[in-house]
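[step 3/7] inverse_fold.run input=structure_tokens len=532
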């Protein structure tokens, strides 16, 4: 039996398009697409728990240990735009299956690595393969769920599955490491990839954009030369602070951004269609995702450090305390699209961000006390409510504002912006916390300490914790209090920025109606929705 159709309405009740409702096959396909999405989230957090064990086995240097962690996210962020457009050109299902196969092979290579260089190479390959999975899954959802309300709900499920994977990482990793060796953390991907490759031809449609333009290799090169130095510079700032090298790297990246944009304007089939940014909805939704993820990215790092370094929880227990925020995001990601059928999306986003502001304000009251565990979990749950909402509705607005043949490219832009937001958040809020910590500890460290111990305590709470046995009574508690003060300052900064973002969403997105149409007659948005 054919799936029933429904009619999408635009401003003043004008008919935009008759669209097919998704049926059981499409919802089963969404369940299948959720598997690689969860896998990508797992892969981000599993390694943090496995790192001490593999360090004993492979003995990496400190620089190599950082690259083992960073190579994955570094390559994902760099290749997202290229892979999103490539999927539009060669077929989204085809790219998903090829990327999944490479992901599985690289996972096995990582699991059985006998040297640090092999593991870093495998992690880089996982990042490139991961860059094919993220935009492909989101773009296929836009093909399978044509009805706006169904698409919004499907994207909400997709967004929460990634967060669920991140939250489950410490728990799954803890169980695996308790019974197996560190490589087992990578082998989780193998059965998921196998199921995806078997079921994808039956449950997922193929889509290829109706255009003959070839992938411009120079544009791909320019995109990498633009993104990779910027991401590298941001990551270095988060670890080592501002330096001439990091500023130079970011400046070089922005120089290539200018060259990249100029080339896109001259091409008939560009890597990124810059006309997408003429849609106010598309651009504002990207800003919401960027700023929202900046706050979440930095706070997520600080919450993890607080639970382990201040509250002294082991990684597995800290991961369990992160369960309620993950459930809050899951609930928001599914509920927000349903609520937006009654209340305009801009107001839903603004309200959810308002709850996040309350969460950030609660974190400004955090103190170095045992009750802080419950407070930080409750506050971060409110932050994640906002994240779940903007991840679902913001991503839906970005994808919905793009024509169908550009869905892969739009998805990749959305994912790239979110990756940049996370990186910037870790760098800025992490740096602010470190600055407050160092200023508080500057004159509180006894000169009698050994030079290396003195340096470790003055550098960060992690450094102080690593030499805790050599510290005089009370100094570690002083370091924990200094870190908490920095956390308070970072939370206050996030509260202000997210409050401004909430107002921006309410004002600029207020014209988007519950049916997806622009109530003030924004023809650019309406025409793009009709094309898709």
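[step 3/7] decode complete -> sequence:
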């Amino acid at each position: 039996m054919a799936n029933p159709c429904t009619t999408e309405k635009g401003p003043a009740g004008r008919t935009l398009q008759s669209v097919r409702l998704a049926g059981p096959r499409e919802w089963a396909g969404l369940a299948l697409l959720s598997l690689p999405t969860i896998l990508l989230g797992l892969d981000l957090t599993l390694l943090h728990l496995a790192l001490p064990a593999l360090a004993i086995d492979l003995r990496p240097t400190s620089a190599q240990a950082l690259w083992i962690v960073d190579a994955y996210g570094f390559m994902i962020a760099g290749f997202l735009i290229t892979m999103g457009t490539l999927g539009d050109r060669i077929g989204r299902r085809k790219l998903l299956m090829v990327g999944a196969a490479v992901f599985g092979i690289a996972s096995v290579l990582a699991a059985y690595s006998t040297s640090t260089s092999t593991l870093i190479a495998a992690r880089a390959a996982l990042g490139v393969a991961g860059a094919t999975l993220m935009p492909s899954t989101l773009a296929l959802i836009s093909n399978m769920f044509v009805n706006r309300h169904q698409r919004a709900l499907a994207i909400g499920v997709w967004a929460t599955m990634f967060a669920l994977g991140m939250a489950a990482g410490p728990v799954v990793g803890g169980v695996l490491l308790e019974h197996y060796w560190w490589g087992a953390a990578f082998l989780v991907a193998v059965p998921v990839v196998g199921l995806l490759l078997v079921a994808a031809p039956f449950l997922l449609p193929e889509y290829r954009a109706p255009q003959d333009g070839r992938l411009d290799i120079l544009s791909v090169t320019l995109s990498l030369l633009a993104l990779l130095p910027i991401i590298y510079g941001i990551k270095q700032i988060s670890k080592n602070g501002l330096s001439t090298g990091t500023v130079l790297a970011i400046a070089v990246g922005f120089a290539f951004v200018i060259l990249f944009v100029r080339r896109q304007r001259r091409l008939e089939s560009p890597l990124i269609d810059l006309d997408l940014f003429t849609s106010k909805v598309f651009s504002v939704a990207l800003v919401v995702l960027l700023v929202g993820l900046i706050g979440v990215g930095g706070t997520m790092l600080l919450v993890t450090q607080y639970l382990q370094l201040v509250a002294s929880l082991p990684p597995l227990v800290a991961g369990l305390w992160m369960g309620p925020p993950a459930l809050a995001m899951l609930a928001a990601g599914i509920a927000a699209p349903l609520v937006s059928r009654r209340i305009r999306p801009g107001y839903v986003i603004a309200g959810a961000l308002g709850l996040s502001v309350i969460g950030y304000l609660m974190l400004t009251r955090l103190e170095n006390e045992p009750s802080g565990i419950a407070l930080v979990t409750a506050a971060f749950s409110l932050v994640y409510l906002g994240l779940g909402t903007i991840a679902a509705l913001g991503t839906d607005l970005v994808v919905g504002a793009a024509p169908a043949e550009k869905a892969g490219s739009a998805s990749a832009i959305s994912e790239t912006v979110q990756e940049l937001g996370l990186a910037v958040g870790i760098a800025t809020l992490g740096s602010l916390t470190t600055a407050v910590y160092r200023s508080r500890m500057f004159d509180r460290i006894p000169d009698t300490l050994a030079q290396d111990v003195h340096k470790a305590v003055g550098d960060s709470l992690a450094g102080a914790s690593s030499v805790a046995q050599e510290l005089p009574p009370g100094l570690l508690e002083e370091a924990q209090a200094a870190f908490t003060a920095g956390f308070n300052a970072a939370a206050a900064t996030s509260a202000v920025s997210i409050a401004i973002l909430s107002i921006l969403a309410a004002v600029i997105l207020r014209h988007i109606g519950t049916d997806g149409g622009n109530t003030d007659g924004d023809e650019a948005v309406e025409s793009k929705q009709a094309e898709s």
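[step 4/7] annotate
The CA atoms of residues 226 and 257 lie 5 Å apart.
The chain has 19 helices and two strands.
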